[in-house]
Amino acid sequence: MKRTLIIGSTVADIIIGVKTLPASGSDINTESHEIKLGGCAFNVSEVLRHLSVPYTLCSPVGTGAYGEFVLSEYKKKGIECFKRVEGENGCCYCFVEDGGERTFVSHHGAEYTFEPEWFDSIDMSTVDSIYVCGLELETDTEGKIVTWLEKQKDVDIYFACSSRINFVNPDHVNRLLRLHPILHLSDNEAEMYTGKMNPAESAEILSGYTDNTVIITSGRRGCFCLEKNDDGTFSSVGVPAVNSIVKDTIGAGDAHIGAYISYRKMGYSVSNAALLANTVSGAVVATSGATLSDEEFAALNIPVNTLR
Fold it and tell me: pTM of the full predicted structure?
C-alpha cells in the first residue's frame, strides 16, 4: 500500500473545562485543565497509525515551550520530526463547556510555516494520497502549498476545508478546487461556504466545483456522502452516527477524515468507510481531547489494514 502525506500542524492543545463560556468582563474558575498533543495533521495521522495505514506526517515543529512539548510527545510515540524550524511553536486553547461543545482560540506559530523544498526528499512514487487542511491554506498567504499540489500527479487530494474557509485567499481555494479534491467538512462549514443549510444542497454545489466526492459530517445526525461513481455520475447516501456520550467534540472531524482516508485506501466503499469513520469519531467525542490511546482504539474492535 502506498503512503498518505499528511500536511499540517502539530500543537499543544490546552484544554480548559468551563461550565459555560464567560461573558466579557466576567471572572470565572475552570472546571478542569490539561495539555495534550493536538493539531489537525497530528490528529489525522494518529488514526492512520492506529489502523496501520502507511503515512508521512509533514508537520514542522517550532521552538519554545510548546515546541519542546511537541518533540517530547513525539519521542514517546516514536514519531520522527519532519522538520524543525525557527520560531516558537503555537498552541490551541480549547474551551470545553459542560455540554461538550468546544471553542478554539488558536495561537499560530512556526508550525504553520511550509516550504516546498521540504518535500524534495519524499519519493512521490510511493505516495497515492495527500491530506491538507484549510487552516494551512489560510496561513500560507503566498500559496506555496497549492502551488506544490498543482505539480503532483496521480494522487488523491483530501481537503478538510475547516471552519475558517472563508478567511482563505479565494484564488488559492479556487486553484485547489480545480485539482478535484475529495472535500470533507462539517455541516456548519458547508453552510458557511455555500449558504445552504441542507447538506445535500451544499454537497451538490461543492461537487460542482470539484467534480468529486463530498463528505459532510453532522454530529449526532451522522454524515452525508455525495459519491462520484466510476461512470461520472453522482449518488448520495446518509450514513447514521454511532451513539456516544459526548465529553468534548475536540478532534471529531480530524478523526473522521483520518478513518475515512484509511478505509478508502483499504478498499471499502464510500458508505462503509464513512460508517467506520463515524465509529472512530464517536469514540473520540466520548473522551477528553482529540485522539484515542492505543487501548481505547483497540477496544473499538474495528478492522485494521492488512494490505502491504
Answer: 0.97
